[in-house]
Amino acid sequence: MENKRTVTRMAAIANRSEPLLAGSHGCAAESDRYWRWGDDNMLPAALAMVSRRATTHRRIINDKADYIAGKGFIFDGKDPLLNHIVAHANADGDSLRAVVERLARDQALFGNAFLEVVTDPEHSFVSLYHQDASRCRVARDSQHIILYHDWASFNAADARTLPLWPLVEQHEDGTLRTAIHYKSYEPMFEHYGVPPYIAGLNVAAIAYKTDKWNIARIDNSFQLSGVMMLDSIVDSEDEADRIVRAAEQKFAGSPGQVMFVLRDRAEGDNSRFIPIDTTSDGDWQSLHDQATADMVIAHSWFRSLSGLDYSSGFSSERILHEYEVALNTVILAEQQRLMDPIRTLIEDLLGIDCRSLQIVNRPPTRSKPIYMKVWEARQADGLDYDREDPRQQLYLADISKNGTTGADQ
Fold first, then answer.
1. Alpha carbons 276 and 155: distance in angstroms, whole number
2. What is the rounded distance in angstroms from the CA atom of residue 130 to the CA atom of residue 179?
3. Which one of 10, 28, 235, 288 is least enclosed by Cβ atoms within 10 Å?
């Protein structure tokens, strides 16, 4: 009866028209005092801009987040509260996987991620909200985070604060709220984490600029660059500048393809085009390839999982091998880092045993038939298995189809 009452209350809260994360202001920390994130406090905006311009860099971030979020969850489906949280983690209708995927994306991009946790004084429900890391800053007391939509024009009156776990504070709507700050450790950095690819920022810039150079060549129809010497008689520098600008607008193509120079006419017309012979196309391609390879290394990632080697032939064996290495060196560690605080919070606030809550990992290519049971797949991988465990009696097809699976389903 108690579980039924709690689930009914949770369903009512989850169906609210307004999101739980909007409209309330904390008062425990001074929102006009915060630790700057970067020298100008705008490092997240710079990192986000780089990720939107460098193709390989963005692909790796997206793929890492997708692999870390997995394909859903397997858990003890006998507890209705846990079922509800996995399927509907918050009032916006996001599943737990969606929340974890956004946290993983922020962690891969910024080296920081923020999770807002909402409950009530009776601890009858828990809602989990991802907060965009670019909107968050650590308050000077180091016990709160400050949320604001545009840090380039910060206004303390419109900001809101959240306490950092284990601090929990009551807000104006009667809910209790706290936040978890995930951050990648880096020596000499205390208040914010550092993204794992920090050593590859210049490499990402090189890859972007080589792409931009190729676009400029296409815009110019691969015409030669050079200097156009024009002989003319002009009365003023303004008139000379006007003639040059008109010639550039009509003939130059993209800026930098042709430079026009106007000089006083001597005897006869000596106008001529002096080409600049570019014999370094191979060097540019090598530079781009090297930047791409260095970007993969900076991310501690793998080429085949980034779609870089498909042109040379699709090797499922290599993809599976690199996936296994990534799983044991990157993916499982990041999953544990993200999930441990979530399990702890759910257990502390709701009294639910969350040890069974595990992310389902599946390789990018199908290595096992879908009619295998979970215990058979674990046996094939050399992992511990239990034929009597109801969770391991599920078929792989059930996990692939449902994404989220309870033991009683």
1. 52
2. 10
3. 235
Closest alpha carbon to 231 in 203, 194, 264, 255: 264
The single-letter DSSP state of residue 185 is -
pTM over 0.85, yes/no:
no
* Residue 48 forms part of a structural domain: yes
Question: Long-range contacts of range 205-208, CB-CB < 8 Å, 24 or more positions apart?
Answer: 205/50, 205/54, 206/287, 206/288, 206/291, 207/54, 207/55, 207/56, 207/57, 207/288, 207/291, 207/292, 207/295, 208/50, 208/53, 208/54
In a domain, 17, yes or no: yes
Residue 75 backbone phi and psi in degrees, to 5: -160, 170
Distances (CA, A) of 354 to 61, 79, 82, 134, 149: 28, 10, 8, 30, 34
- 148-204 pLDDT, tens digit per residue, is 999 988 888 889 999 999 999 998 888 999 999 999 998 989 899 999 888 887 777
The total domain count for the chain is 3
Domain assignment of residue 344, yes or no: no
DSSP letter assigned to residue 224: P
pLDDT tens figures, 251-302: 555 545 555 555 555 555 555 555 555 555 556 667 777 778 888 888 889 8
Domain-terminating residue out of 178, 196, 214: 196
Residues 234 and 399: their CA atoms lie apart, in Å, by 78
The residue range of the domain holding 132 is: 2-196
